[in-house]
Amino acid sequence: MAKCTHCGNEVLVGTGFTIFKRDGTALHFCSKKCSRNAEMGRSPRRQKWTAKFVKGQ
Prior knowledge:
Helix content: 10-25%
Shape: globular
Number of helices: 1
Number of domains: 1
Strand content: 15-25%
Structural class: alpha+beta
Mean pLDDT: 93
């Protein structure tokens, strides 16, 4: 199972979606919320709802 590229949560089989960049890198997302935030360039370390959150950033 893959981990979400943005929030770090586990993406279960049959859920979420994967986007492939032109250079061949795979971006795994668990939800549209994560996809949109990554697309807007937001840092997951600054969002409290992500597993990658670091206090004081």
